[in-house]
Amino acid sequence: MKKATRASGSGKAARAVSRKGGPRIDEGTRVRRHGDIASRTIDEQEIVVVPATRKMQILNEVATRIWALSDGRSVGEIADAITAEYEVDRKTALADVIGLVRTMLDRGMIVVE
Amino acid sequence: MTVPTGRAIGAFARLDRLAAGRDMPISAMIQITERCNFRCRHCYQVHPPREEISTAGWVRIVRSLAGSGILFLTFSGGEPLVRRDLVDIAGEARRLGFALKLKTNGWLLDRGIADALRRLAFLEVHFSLYSARPRVHDHVTGTPGSFARAMRAGRMLARRGVGVVMNTPLMNLNCGEVDDLIALSERHGFGWSMDPHLNVCEDGGCSPAALRMDERQMRAVLGHPRLVDRRALLKAARRRRIEDRVCNAGRTSCVISPTGDVLVCPMIQAPLGNLAKADLAGIWKGSEARRRIESTSWASLHGCRDCDLVPYCVRCHGAALFEDGDMMGPSRLACQAARVRRDALLSRRVR
Predict the structure, then answer these.
(1) DSSP letter string over B120-166?
(2) DSSP bridge partners of B234
(3) B77: burial class by Cβ within 10 Å (0-12, 13-18, 19+)?
């Protein structure tokens, strides 16, 4: 089982709560990568380019895994997968996933259903 | 000049390190054709357009580039939109997750293509803008109406939310227009960038050199506060060491010619290999020539290693090859520009 580092983009810790507001994110929220995004995995880090903002993010290993799991699954399902794969308890994993989903949503990287 | 700002710089610097660390490029420029509908006065291409790869051939190459870890893909030419299948090839590239860019003169960019570029989430479309005055721009392109068509195409894309950047090679015809060019671009929501170096033809022919800025004009450009951060340049000059790498050619970006040859940059036409015969990783990592160019330092350039202009020099290996016949020797163009840059930066009068 892998040791968990906090999921983050561009080396910054993901914020748990968006200051900008936005839709409520909970265990049942389904998340999907935005269709316009360009990305590549290099050395287990996902490089994500958002055409709408012309910004780039480099995700760390855990955030890269969460990004890969954002294929229409729910936040709860993603947190389950992270708990199974990394040395982290479910509560911490869920908080981390919600924080990262909020950040990725703010940055136009994903859409929520 | 358009430069990434704030945290974006950090992310791009990290990406550069990641790419350099795996000894593979992260971006590729596809010269999809050498045909062009313009006859620009400063164009360096002399040879007639070579035979081009088919649509299916380019799709195969694009798939192979995705597998090699390329993220940024720029379609260039010639004029890339003379290829009617460009949107189809770009569509496959989009499906494969590339961040797409296009370099065009805008003449053939109609509503249908603008819609397609938006649909394919193009990151940026770069236009050549030679003047804020239509008459001068059309004079450089040799094509009446080209200014109006480029601006119209830029506006169509900007309205659709596609990033537009106007690129201006600075010449003696337009170097006095910097403020007008910036204002024009800002008025339409475009980015703007400039290139102060004008290369001679690939066969050494000097016709583009007649359009180069003279030293007085170069000094004026170097004194423009929107173009040059004097303190940053001075700091960079003081930090430069003779062991430093001269340019980024052969490091994190590559060029694919219309025939599928892999090049280190558009100015050095010596192919490292061909993508019809091998994949990019094999070509890139197996090329001694690429390694030699990538690792070239100021110390390895004869005639440069003892030069006191090195801290101020911005040198292009390709320009040295075209103009002076020796890629590893001094470049008259770079020497002249470095002299002007040193004088301008060290002069208290120029701010």
Answers:
(1) TT-SEEEEE---SSHHHHHHHHT-TTHHHHHHHHHHHHHHTT-EEEE
(2) none
(3) buried
Structural contact between residues A17 and A107, judged by C-beta atoms closer than 8 angstroms = no
**Residue B2 confidence (pLDDT) above 50:** no
Q: Tell me the chain B residues in contact with residue A54 when contact means C-beta distances shorter than 8 Å.
A: 123-124, 163
pTM reported for the whole predicted model? 0.89
Q: Give the angle B126-B316-B21 at the CA atoms, nearest 5°.
A: 80
Residue position matching structure tokens 């770079």: B334
| Res. B8: pLDDT tops 70 | no
Cβ-Cβ contacts under 8 Å, B10 against chain A:
10-11
Interface probe, candidates B14, B65, B94, chain A, greatest A C-beta count within 10 A: B14
Helix (H, G, I), strand (E, B) or coil at A20: coil
Residues B120-158: tens digit of each pLDDT: 999 999 999 999 999 999 999 999 999 999 999 999 999
Mutate which: A8, A34, A40, vs B, most B CBs within 10 A: A40
Which chain A residues have a beta carbon less than 8 Å from that of B100? 38
Q: How far is B8 from chain A (nearest CA, A)?
A: 7
Nearest C-alpha neighbor of B71 from the set B277, B259, B254: B254
Average pLDDT of span B62-79: 96
pLDDT tens-digit readout, A3-45: 666 666 553 333 333 445 678 899 999 999 999 999 999 888 8
ipTM: 0.83
- Judge whether B192 and B185 are in contact, CB under 8 Å: yes
Per-residue three-class SS string for A39-74: EEEECCEEEEEECCCCEEEEECHHHHHHHHHCEEEE
CB atoms within 10 A of CB A75: 23
B100 neighbors B80 (Cβ within 8 angstroms):
no
Measured between beta carbons, the chain B residues lying within 8 angstroms of A47 are 15, 18, 26, 71
Please state, in angstroms and as integers, the Cα–Cα distance from residue B82 to each residue in B32, B77, B78, B200, following that order.
9, 9, 8, 25
Please state, in angstroms and rounded to a whole number, the distance separating the CA atoms of residues B81 and B144.
Answer: 19
Residue pair B263/B36 in contact by the 8 Å Cβ criterion: no
